[in-house]
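User: structure tokens for this one?
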Amino acid sequence: MITTEAAFARYERLRPTLPQAQFPETSRMGRTLEDTMNDYDAYILDAFGVLNRGETPVPGAVERIAQLRAAGKRLIVLTNAASYTRSGVLAKYHRLGFDFTLDEVVSSRDVAFAHLPKVHGVWAAITSGDDDLSDAPVGHFIVDLHEQPDLMITAAAFLFLSAAWWSDAENARLERALQFQPRPVIVANPDLVAPRDHGLSLEPGWYAQDIAKKTGATLPMFGKPFRNAFDEALRRLPDITPARIAMVGDTLHTDVLGGAAAGLGTILIREHGLFRGLSPAPFIEASGIRPAWLIQST
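Assistant:
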């Protein structure tokens, strides 16, 4: 497991590779999203740390989403959890008690799939170990690397969806394979860490940054904070000006930075995600990444 301080320091080292944005001089303070409702007509919601922590819904989040919907607010879930199909993401949130529709869910997996380059051969997918790959785009043959380890040598390209069973040792194997034979590596989850029930887990972005450093390769990334993910979310909200849309998340370098770079309002939730048990103020001051709103919980 990794600490918030270590994850923050690593995000800061990556700042030159992340989008650029402007931020307000101060943040408005609130208790929940209810306090922000006069400012926004639509909410783009991160998943981990906003709707759920691991397999547990954030307390009060189901009721808050119902309140926002009853008030006529438009809702989009924008998640970097790339291990699930979009229908799988929806099924998960239905299990947790949320009522999102398929059109209200945008996954970094979908964004990555829409931008896969053509390769002559098999894509090796780094997955959670039991991923459903049936939604692979037409013309791309994607096979689970966990099931066929020899693909480390023979695959034409790699698709990084999950780090659930990945390790430093596996990453070193991939680095050596890429040094021997350079091949495309597409990262469908740029997150360095994610909040779980038991703490922060390492995510594909953490390992991908090591691969880029060791091999000198450029690894295309799809998902927050990059504009490719926000463009897909905003495509669902064509009739609402970006200033009236809020990106709601638990991290500065993915949710707040990415939302601000896309011209959106930004809301940082402090109690359930990256800053659980900590004051985000020192991190905001150190990074200069300042949300429009800082609230306690969803």
